[in-house]
Design brief:
The complex is a heterotrimer of chains A (about 230), B (about 750) and C (about 475). Chain A has about 230 residues and is of the alpha+beta class. Chain A has 7 helices and 10 strands. With about 750 residues, chain B is α/β, with parallel strands linked by helices. The radius of gyration of chain B is 27 Å and the shape is globular. The chains are: A alpha+beta (about 230), B alpha/beta (about 750), C mainly alpha (about 475).
């Protein structure tokens, strides 16, 4: 049975703690660059928490919004890739095949969420930091574009397990690293095809929005708006 | 070229390339026979305990097989072994419920850090030069014994000191017992953000020398005074889990959250209402709120019990704290104070939290007592949705950070340094150092470095060389916390009594030994009192013996035999009772203590020359600086500033405009005691009369990722302490700010500081 | 043959022998200046190659590209050179089709620019790849796993467009060279003769050959036009197909084509002026040629300013927040200096020079053309970079600073372009001799030309068209 994996991020729960960011680095073998390259804007935070200031002191607010690959149904990154490195898999994920990528950067230009990250150099892990690498996830070399995969290795593992036990993947059985680590349970992952799943129910919330809906990408990451009970509102 | 020649040439070339590949050292190492059986490609999960901050979260360590370069019996080689691949929260652990913060997850890089001390070291260069030579464990232990055994003899004129981070559980017991073997031994606990003011206040208000636990999940109104409780303070994971429930898990009820602070923290950014009060006036604001609650008869003064009695004028309705008077002091409008008071009184359960900067003032204790009194008045103490205390496990003599029963002198680093430098105390002949870095994390005016330099012998039991351990003569490297037997007794964050226990999740990578085992070994070799006090052969044995009484206490574990109990404890990652709150021991609180009067916070540095309050804050990435050697943390953008790989000075844009400072300008922040330089970061979330800097960078000696990066704001602080408790008033300094050139600010966000959200959403 | 005053002004009335002497001189006599020039160009170009190797070896990180500005100098150069390439084929084809006689000394200079600019421009998609060594994965053949390139990707369209264009342009350039090479063959001796014998494809100059050549050129001229238009349209679609603020625009196709012709003519004028000076072709490349091209340039300048106005106005009027961020950064922000320099270079300076007849001299047109080449490069840069710096989520905005690697490669390829042109001038008469002669004979001149009868060994002058059309 084909799934349509999706994620709901409740911005009313998100506290900007960035546990998801660290979890993603650990799970997906994301290299740290270094200070010089970070200054050049070349860090690779597949998920990062965007902060938007509103207002002036003292009536100032900061809003947090975790942004990761939105796994769009109509993903602009896919048609532009000349080598099918970026393609739509049967579970509706925007997969990235590192081996096929030749680094045209076109997908990254096309992505309205700037959710794609490039390996400007070969990644470096000072020994023995290389021992922390997750054997379930390939390490990307120089010249290759990469991005959030919804932790496809976890999805695949769950699907294989379910198949072995001759059943469907249960709701909540798959948790990408970010979802797993979220202390406030702001992130929920599941099958949008299954109307009884928690994501499907949350996606129907009054607070549900998608990021940059006007671009027409039909993302599978759905945000629940932060609620306001501000005194001045 | 003939075809044959070409083939020959290409073969030679290919072989050459292959040989070049073989030239790597890995392939020359011998391969050891694995001493554990693991299925390749299949992950196993083992329990662990997070030691990256004092919260004491339970871990689940993902272990997979891999090839590691190790040293076994002095021989370098490669072995297939279980390696920690990921850290996640232990879903069963009562503190963190399966969650783990960014710092905790980066703990992998503690174990695999390339800058770990990999074998015992003996100093060869001048002290502090960082020149060490590799020695064997036997030599190292012998060296240690030659220095320690004279001190262990009865009547020794010299003393030893053990300088360590705040230890809990059996490690603490072990060190206390170890020190009891020495004639004059001092235990010197050190932590920058030590919260001892709040413990003291809780002792006075509620009779508990302990950090509180907040039942936010049931609260309808949360007011936090400066506590970064979702980020770095107390038990952030436990509090975050509860916060999520408070906000959205209860249909129809969404708890309101108000934050009072002068610089917006990660926690403050989530508040429904963010109230910048003048630094040091938070207690008065709390009493202003209490004044309204009392004067409008929402509660009676007696409701606050002993906690109220700590505040002068409490039973008269706090006449000094009229909204107008408080507004004038705090800068919070009187209407806001009145509105908040009414909301708090009505939207019950309501709870007030205090922590961080408000307590790091000279009047910190008063502030804490004021907020305790407010909490007591609101009626949430010991109740659902209010303030609770984690019960102590039914074990004799430990589980708290109280001073011990053995009569050992607990000394502060500051007084230790003073005594050493003044020569008043008995000479500290030997100093043992473990997981504390006071040279980095104390003001320069405390002269800790100078004091330690004059100690004749220092041995470090930690696994990194930092600013303090670089002064050591001998380094006996510890296992990482994933390689050792671990135990912990969380001080807060749950209403269950918890003793966390975790066996080593993986075999050691380097030629290191666990600190407890080293001390047991040393005690054994010392003989006499020491070996009597510490009769166990290993720390595992000691832990098992210590925890055995728990088998009879009610908990989730039902065991048939002591061995079965121990196995189940190890598998679960510890022992914990069912949830329930220990009632505050109000009656035991001594009533004889006189009530405290309102005290104004004193700031070092006159306002004319030093116009800004200086706020160093616990960093989201580095906490108090101990995580600056983790590359993941260096590259984690601080969520509000988006800064990475450096330090910055947060300043209000309007102030900056007045001073003609632009984003990225190098600023010199000067107190009366020194100055640091860092680039300016214009942030709308900071009061115009405050400048703030994250703590954690500015290391001189802390490995390749941290050394020489950023600036250390602690160094320029005034030596002032909180009046009653004597802990560092790290938020009590005033500074001046001047432009000193162009700095380099590394931010993740390249966008403008301000942008309407409407622009982003549909 | 139309004989109006316009045509008369362009007529070059020089004896055949003199023409051959003048135009073939560079092929037979090599001065020291030539070697110095080649050495200089190699000295500039070679570091570019070394830098490129360094970039491959180290990684794309040595460029100034960063997230989210993934396209920078390289793509700018790509668009720029493809634009320059519209000098030749398009202009020459149009002029051939409308039978403008004054084109005769101009066409080959122009067509050569096309081929070389394409050769340089086509390198950039490869230089700019993260894994340049795998560039052939863009080639439409199935890989070992049976996967074809993605035909939905504008980059694959690019591949088709550019390879078609370069094939067409090369044919368009080489076909009319054959008679000239035949002429060289007949005059040369030794090794040179052997080389040119091969190059001349056995051209004998029979009427049938002439007829076929004329036919081929007509067919080529008709077919190359849509190809040229499509090429730059497709290049524009590289941008317009991506949902990036200010890229996603319908005007981009014609806007890019107009800009390409604009910069192409400018490059042609500069090339012609340099050739005129260095090869002493004053008698062939007359002020009237420059004036005529100047008029074309004027038209294109007006068209360009119209397009940029239309593009900017609609964006500004539409007031889409995402687009406005990029818009204002160009109009009044960080890129304002570049923008207004571009407007000055592309319109404010050239317009008066080209519009006032007195100023439309050789010097005048060269000045205008030079500013336009600079301006058009800036235009490409401003199309590529500022929108990428200001994509939808303001948190992710970034800044682009080109690195020395990109500058070295840019300079190196520019010098490579000049080098190719200089070498070309060494092997090919840069003014088509036979075409020039064809144009010279305003009155029919009696020939001894007879139809080649099979079996007769009549040796015809291979450089003269059998019958003047």
């Amino acid at each position: 049975m084909a799934h349509r994996w999706g994620m709901v991020i409740d911005l009313d729960r998100c506290t900007g703690c960035e546990a998801c960011v660290a979890a993603c680095h650990a799970e997906n073998n994301i290299a740290t660059v270094d200070a010089a390259q970070a200054a050049n804007g070349r860090t690779m935070h597949w998920i990062h928490v965007e902060r938007y200031w509103e207002g002036e002191f003292p009536n100032v607010r900061a809003r947090f919004q975790p942004v990761l690959c939105q796994q769009c149904d109509a993903a602009p990154c896919e048609p532009v890739c000349p080598t099918y490195a970026s393609y739509h898999n049967s579970d509706g994920l925007n997969a990235q095949v590192y081996n096929r990528c030749i680094g045209t950067f076109y997908c990254a230009d096309a992505c309205p969420y700037t959710a794609r990250y490039f390996n400007w150099f070969n990644p470096v892990w000072d020994k023995p930091l290389n021992l922390q690498l997750n054997p379930d996830v390939s390490v990307r070399g120089v010249g290759v574009m990469e991005k959030c995969t919804f932790c496809i290795q976890r999805i695949t593992a769950a699907e294989i397990q379910a198949k072995a036990e001759n059943r469907d993947v249960k709701d909540g059985e798959v948790k990408p690293a970010c979802v797993q680590s979220c202390p406030t349970a702001a992130m929920v992952f599941g099958d949008l095809e299954d109307p009884s799943s928690q994501v499907s129910r949350l996606a129907g919330s009054m607070r549900a929005t998608t990021l940059l809906a006007e671009v027409g990408t039909f993302p599978k990451v759905i945000y629940l708006e932060r609620e306001s009970s501000h005194a001045n509102e | 070229m003939k075809r044959r020649t070409f083939l020959k040439l290409s073969t030679v070339g290919g072989a050459g390339a292959a040989l070049a590949g073989c030239g790597e050292q890995t392939n020359q190492l011998i391969r050891f026979i694995p001493d554990e059986t693991l299925v390749p490609g299949v992950a196993t999960w083992r329990p662990g305990i997070c030691t990256l901050c004092p919260a004491g979260c339970g871990l689940q360590v993902r272990i997979m097989e891999g090839d590691a370069e190790v040293i076994r019996n002095g021989q370098a080689g490669v072995v297939k072994m279980g390696l920690a691949k990921k850290l996640e929260g232990n879903p069963q652990h009562p503190v963190n419920h399966g969650t783990l913060c960014a710092r905790g997850q980066a703990g992998l890089q503690v174990t695999f850090n390339p800058d770990r001390v990999r074998h015992p070291l003996k100093r060869v260069g001048p002290r502090g030069s960082g020149k060490f030579a590799e020695i064997s464990w036997d030599e190292a232990l012998q060296e240690l014994l030659t220095h320690l055994s004279p001190l262990a003899s009865p009547g020794s004129a010299h003393s030893m000191a053990f300088l360590a981070g705040p230890l809990r559980g059996q490690r603490r017991v072990l060190i206390e017992r170890f020190l009891s073997a020495f004639g004059a031994a001092q235990f010197v606990p050190f932590e920058l953000f030590d919260d001892s003011v709040l413990r003291a206040a809780n002792q006075l208000s509620f009779g508990r020398d302990q950090l509180p636990t907040f039942d936010l999940a049931e609260s309808n109104f949360v007011m936090s005074f400066g506590a970064d409780f979702l980020g770095t303070w107390n038990s952030p994971m436990a509090q975050s889990v509860a916060y999520g429930i408070m906000r959205r898990n209860r249909p129809g009820a969404r708890g309101k959250f108000v934050q009072v602070e002068s610089r917006m923290s990660q926690t403050g950014a989530n508040a429904d209402e963010w109230i910048p009060a003048h630094p040091g006036t938070e207690g008065q604001l709390a009493l202003g709120i209490a004044h309204i609650i009392l004067s409008e008869h929402h509660r009676s003064p007696e409701a606050a019990g002993a906690a109220g009695s700590r505040i002068e004028g409490w039973h008269n309705g706090l006449p000094e704290y009229s909204p107008e008077a408080v507004a004038w002091k705090t800068g919070v409008p009187p209407q806001t104070i009145m509105r908040l008071a009414r909301e708090m009184a009505v939207q019950t359960p309501a709870v007030a939290i205090v922590g961080g900067a408000p307590l790091a003032q000279t009047n910190g204790l008063f502030t804490a007592l004021a907020i305790n009194a407010l909490n007591a008045l609101l009626g949430g103490v010991g109740k659902p949705g209010g303030l609770q205390f984690t019960p102590r496990p039914p074990l004799p003599g430990h589980g708290s950070s109280e001073t011990n029963s053995k009569g050992l002198t607990g000394t502060s680093v500051r007084s230790l340094a003073q005594h050493i430098l003044s020569g008043q105390a008995r000479t500290v002949e030997s100093l043992l150092l473990y997981e504390a870095n006071p040279v980095f994390a104390t003001p320069a005016t405390w002269h800790v470095k100078e004091a330690l330099e004059s100690v004749p012998f220092i041995a470090s039991l930690g696994h990194f060389i930092d600013e303090t351990s670089v002064l050591a003569d001998l380094i006996l490297p510890d296992h990482s916390y994933l390689e050792s037997w671990m135990d912990d007794v969380p001080e807060s964050g749950t209403t269950a009594a918890v003793v966390s226990v975790a066996p080593p999740a993986m075999h050691p990578l380097h030629n290191t030994r666990a600190m407890p085992d080293v001390l047991l070994d040393v005690a054994h070799r010392l003989g006499g009192r020491a070996s009597q006090a510490l009769p166990w052969k290993s720390y595992e044995e000691m832990l098992q013996a210590a925890l055995a009484p728990l088998a009879h206490s009610p908990s989730s574990i039902t065991a048939s035999s002591p061995d079965d109990f121990w196995t189940k404890v190890k598998d679960q990652g510890g022992w914990w009772s069912a949830k329930g709150s220990a009632a505050p021991e109000r009656e035991s609180a001594a009533h004889a203590v006189p009530a405290l009067k309102n005290e104004e916070a004193q700031f070092d540095g006159p306002a004319p020359g030093y116009p800004f309050y200086f706020l160093p804050y616990a960093s989201q990435q580095f906490f108090d600086g101990r995580h600056a050697n983790l590359p993941w943390m260096q590259e984690l953008p601080e969520v509000l500033s988006t800064g990475m790989w450096g330090t910055w000075v947060e300043i209000n844009p309007q102030t900056a405009a007045t001073l003609k400072i632009e984003q990225g300008d190098l600023l010199e922040v000067a107190s009366r005691h020194g100055s640091v330089r860092a680039p300016a970061l214009l942030s709308p979330g900071i009061a115009p009369d405050v400048v703030a800097m994250p703590v954690g960078q500015g290391h001189v000696e802390y490995g390749r990722y941290a050394s020489g990066r950023g600036a250390n704001p602690i160094k320029i602080l005034a030596p002032d302490v909180e009046r009653t408790t004597g802990s560092l008033a790290w938020a009590g300094t005033r500074v001046s700010v001047a432009k000193a050139g162009t700095g380099e600010l590394i931010l993740l966000s390249g966008g403008p500081t301000k942008w309407s959200q409407e622009r982003v959403r549909r | 043959m139309p004989t109006n005053s316009m045509a008369q002004a362009n007529v070059i009335d020089i004896k055949d022998e003199q023409v051959r002497e003048d135009l073939l001189r560079p092929l037979f006599h090599t001065s020291r200046r030539f070697y110095v020039l080649v050495f200089l160009l190699v000295a500039i170009g070679l570091p570019g190659i070394v830098t490129f190797v360094y970039q491959i070896y180290t990684g794309m990180g040595v460029s100034g590209l960063t997230r989210p500005i993934f396209w920078g100098f390289y793509v700018t150069n790509f668009v720029f050179w493809i634009g320059i390439s519209h000098a030749g084929t398009l202009i020459s084809a149009i002029l051939r089709l409308v039978n403008a006689t004054w084109r005769r000394p101009v066409t080959r200079c122009a067509e050569a620019i096309t081929v070389f600019a394409l050769a340089i421009g086509a390198q950039y998609p490869i230089i700019h790849l993260g894994r340049s060594w795998l560039f052939f994965w863009l080639v439409p053949y199935p890989s070992e796993r049976g996967i074809w390139p993605n035909f939905r990707s504008p980059l694959v369209w690019d591949f088709f467009a550019i390879s078609t264009y370069i094939t067409g342009s090369l044919t368009f350039l080489l076909l009319p060279i054959i008679p000239d090479w035949a002429m060289v063959r007949d005059r040369a001796t030794g090794l040179r003769k052997r080389i040119y014998t091969v190059l001349a494809f056995g051209w004998r100059g029979t009427p049938r050959e002439w007829h076929r050549l004329e036919m081929a050129m007509k067919i080529m001229a008709v077919t190359i036009l849509p190809v040229a238009v499509s090429v730059h349209t497709i290049v524009s679609w590289d941008f317009a197909m991506a949902p990036v603020p200010m890229w996603h625009s319908t005007v981009f196709g014609p806007y890019f084509v107009a800009g390409a012709i604009f910069s192409g003519i400018a490059a042609l004028i500069i090339a012609m002026a340099l050739l005129r000076k260095t090869l002493h072709l004053e008698a062939y490349l007359k002020p009237s040629h420059f004036s005529n091209l100047g008029k074309l340039l004027l038209v294109m300048s007006l068209l360009w300013i119209y397009f940029i106005f239309a593009e900017r106005l609609t964006v500004w009027y539409g007031n889409q927040p995402a687009e406005m961020a990029a818009f204002w950064s160009i109009q009044s922000g960080r890129f304002a200096i570049l923008f207004w320099t571009m407007v000055t270079c592309n319109f404010l300076i050239p317009f008066p020079i080209l519009a006032i007849k007195k100023l439309r001299t050789i010097t005048g047109t060269v000045i205008a053309a030079s500013t336009i080449v600079v301006g058009m490069w800036l235009e490409r840069f401003l199309i590529v970079v500022p929108p990428l710096e200001h994509k939808y989520l303001p948190y992710d905005w970034g800044r682009y600073h080109p690195s020395w690697v990109e500058i070295m490669i840019t300079v190196g390829t520019a010098s490579g372009m000049v080098l190719l042109y200089v070498l070309f001038a060494k092997f090919v008469p840069l003014i088509s001799i036979w075409e020039l002669k064809g144009g010279q004979h305003t009155n029919p001149v009696p020939h001894q030309a007879q139809p080649a009868v099979a079996g007769t060994q009549v040796r015809l002058d291979p450089t003269l068209p059998a019958a003047n059309s």
